[in-house]
Amino acid sequence: MGQNILIIGANGLVGTELAKQLPDAHAFARSECDILDTAALEKIFLKYKPQAIFNCAAMTNVDLCETERNSAYEINAVAVGNLAKLCKSHSTTLIHFSTDYIFDGTGDVPMSESHSPHPMSIYGDSKLKGEDAVKSNCKDWIIARVQLVFGGARNNFIFDTAKKLLAAQEVRAFSDQVGAPTYSVDIARMSIALYNGGHRGIFNVVNSGYASRVDAAHEIAQQLNIQTPSITPVLLKELKLPAERPLNCRLSVDKIRHLGIIPPSWQDAISRFLHEAKFL
User: Fold this and answer.
1) Whole-angstrom Cα distance, residue 101 to residue 10?
2) What is the per-residue pLDDT across 29-43, written as a single tens digit (0 to 9) for each?
3) Does domain 5-150+182-206+251-263 have CATH number 3.10.310.30?
4) Dist CA 186 CA 69 (whole Å)
């Protein structure tokens, strides 16, 4: 990969890591490239003539999407469609990041890439419409579905849990939602490998194995050698959050494994993150 790779939404967890792993790429934070500004995007295409674009820009606050629906659809669907059209007209590969929240989370079977979506929230629905916009408007594309992303020395569930446990504070964590805590380092590496390998289509790009947030909290405590952690299980329904969330967030990684792209376990990912963030 060289100078004609662009990263949009480069200030997020995945975008930041992509910029690290692709040092020659041109990385744009939202202040530098607003995905809603199609005219500005067109200028960027004309200037850089990108071979590929990694789109990490999204409205990801699940509950805020419920109250700011227009913004959710504009950012997660309409703008993605406009970007996809530009990619098609400029013969650019689009690598777009989506979410497990396009599913309703019923049952306990891991969902493959061909599983029928049924979103429960505005966030999930807007991201699904974004996927549809990519497929409808772009010729050469990858959709990478990710979940429970952590990374960088910044606020996210894994980082916040480690801080609280080390400070002997209570950690309240969902016990009924199960998926794979996924390290931004691994998302970036695997999505780059998909692009470099010439693979196209929809892929679950997550760490392997499954855990609730309670499981993840206990794993963090064990790795930090905290003997009596204060971890309180809570049920999603008890919190009465604005957006409904799927409980079964298990995503199958069989498809990328068959391509020779091996996702590390979520436990290994947490270990590497705790070292990166200097908790260990």
Assistant:
1) 22
2) 999 999 999 999 999
3) no
4) 31
